[in-house]
Every structure is written in structure tokens, then in C-alpha cells.
Hints:
The protein is mostly helical. It contains 19 helices and six strands. 62% of the residues lie in helices and 5% in strands.
Amino acid sequence: xxxxxxxxxxxxxxxxxxxxxxxxxxxxxxxxxxxxxxxxxxxxxxxxxxxxxxxxxxxxxxxxxxxxxxxxxxxxxxxxxxxxxxxxxxxxxxxxxxxxxxxxxxxxxxxxxxxxxxxxxxxxxxxxxxxxxxxxxxxxxxxxxxxxxxxxxxxxxxxxxxxxxxxxxxxxxxxxxxxxxxxxxxxxxxxxxxxxxxxxxxxxxxxxxxxxxxxxxxxxxxxxxxxxxxxxxxxxxxxxxxxxxxxxxxxxxxxxxxxxxxxxxxxxxxxxxxxxxxxxxxxxxxxxxxxxxxxxxxxxxxxxxxxxxxxxxxxxxxxxxxxxxxxxxxxxxxxxxxxxxxxxxxxxxxxxxxxxxxxxxxxxxxxxxxxxxxxxxxxxxxxxxxxxxxxxxxxxxxxxxxxxxxxxxxxxxxxxxxxxxxxxxxxxxxxxxxxxxxxxxxxxxxxxxxxxxxxxxxxxxx
Length: 462
């Protein structure tokens, strides 16, 4: 390859070492090679349509670009700092292969609109991958929900036992959160799938570029309306990174619960050995490292979003070299979200639930105290505030006697209220009956859970 820069016509001095080292992006933007070649082939077809190249030159150009793609895939291209980025590597290699014809490819194109288009195509491809991974996790959540629908577990507020829920309700709650994540990515994809080639450096190009043809070649329905906007804004990247951040927040929250629920203090779940690690000094340890790492990666992805927000906030129009740094956040966020989705999917599939320990926490946490108060209201016509106070007094008595609502002596119960007696009392505090009293759309009653599972499955096929 030639030592001379592809943009070096007006320069007499060779670029300094620091200029090459600080200016290069090939160390990370080589990931764009497929999108760059795809965009270049579409641009070549445009050049053919407007008479810049002939049919023979077009065929040679497209064939050579396909060969270069294979070379890069096979690790045969040597990356050199002086060629700065993947776009210049491909163009230089094209010229090496087909001579002067290769030098025609950059006609009617700037690196500004070229890179902007490549990144858009990359984001679009990335979203397809992420949606596929979300789909796999959603499927795992449905499968787990179906298998644990008869297990009653504590639902929490303030990380204190609140009310009994079916375990299926817990897992399905993340299914619907992920559905919104997927919808957010779909919105980002619509913003991303726009043709910006033809915008040039910032003002358009001095050729009758057939933008409709290029859009059709790249399967893009929309064409950018303003050339300055097209090369300088990164709204589509912000939306992608926000969708990544929102998804990682959901994954971080379930990770936190996996960490808590697998601890000795909770012992609600256990994880397979293959998904945990040990300690170098404490032989008894079984650590939920995958969940901890995902919890950490969420901060990393949120930081990438903040990085781009900060990068953009003071940039004047149009293109500025600062924007080269946007790809670091893009590539890193993509890597972290894909591995995190895979990790949570495996954890959900592999975890085993321990209903006996959940029952213990439900009893010790007085989870059906509200049900008992509602029993007094509905069956004994006691005003709710009085019922609330009576049950609160009963809980206080349980605490004093180190008892639960299930085993506190009848004598102590009836000293607080004559209604805290007999079969009706135990019916009122039943854990399973408590869950099945929540017979509302979206509730934790068993038939509503079956209904919700059916809706979840349907949504996956839409």
C-alpha cells in the first residue's frame, strides 16, 4: 500500500507520529467493514447510473469489493495506522486490486456521509441481533413461568415481604419489561434506517446522485431531508444507546434479585455449578459472578450513553472529528448487551427454585396480613381502618411471641379480636388463596397467569 494519504494532495510534510496515533480509528472501526462494503457497492451502482463508471468498471469494482470482504473476514488484511480507518483501508486495497478504476469509487462521496451511513447500517444490523437475543430471553422466561406457576413466593415492596404472588408472575414481569425494550429498539431502528449518502461533506454533492437508487439497494425506505443534519447529528445513536441502557437496567435489576435470592439469607433459588465460581481462599463459596458482572456492565453501558450525550452537547454544525469517538461507545455497548442477555438467559434456564424457603419467608413476613384485614371488612363488616388496626395488633403480638399468623396460639388471637378464630381465620390467611384472590387482568391468580402466559406467547409471534 502507498505511504501517501488518500487526502494528502495539498500536504508536503509527512504526518507526525502523534497525528497518526491520535487520529487512527482502525483499531476499533474495522468492525464496520461489512457495512462499508455494502454501502460502497450501492454507491458504485449509483456511479454507474450517472455515467461516472461503465458496466465493466462497475463489475470489476463490485467483484473486488467482495474479494476484499472475504480477505477481511479471513483475517488477511494488514491494518496500518497511516491509513487511519477501515474506509481508507478498503479504498486503498481496492485500488491495489483494480488500479485506477478503484480511485473512482469515492466520486460524489465524502468520508462524512460514508461513515455516517456505515454506522447507521451497523446499528440496524446490531438491533436485529439484540432483538433476537431478547426473544431468546423472553422465551426462557415464559418457559420458567410455566414450570413454576404453582409455586407461591413473596412479593416485595421496600425489600420487605409484602404479599404472596405466584412465581410465574415474577418471571413474567421481566417478560413485559423486555417487550418494551424491544419496542424501543424498533423505534431506534426506524430512526436509523435512513439514507444519508449523497449528503457529501455537509452541503450535498456536485453530481446528480440517484439517492432513490442507493436507498433501494440498501433497503432503506427513508432519505435524509437535510445534508447538514445527515452528517452531523447522532440522534439515532443516542436512541440506540438509550435502548441498550434501559435493557441493561432491567437485566441489572433481575441480576440483583438473583444475587439476593441465591444467598444463604434468602435461599429462594440455587444456581448450577456451571454458572457460578468459587473462592481462592474460602472453599465453601459459590458466587453468582455472572449476575454480578451484568450488574456492573449496566453502569458501563449507561456511561457510554452519557459519553455520547456529553460529546454532542457543544459541537457546532456540521461534522467534527470528535464524532470519531462515537463508535467506541457503540461497539462496547453492543458487546455488553449481547453477552448480558445471553448470561441472564442461561441463569433463568438453570436456576432451581426452593418453595419451602419461600413459604418460610411468607409466614415470617406476615404476607397475608392484608388478606386478614380484608376478611374482617368483607365478612364481618368492620370498617377498614379498624380492621387494619386489629391486624396490626395481632402482628405485634406475633412478634412479641416469636410466632407467625399461622402458629400464634388461638387464645392470644382471640384476645385481640373474637373473629380471629376457626376455619375462617385460616382461610383468610392462606398463602395460595391470597394469590388467587387477585383475579384481575394482569393479576397473580392462576387463571390470570395462564392468560398472561398465553398473551406472552402470542406477543412473541407478532
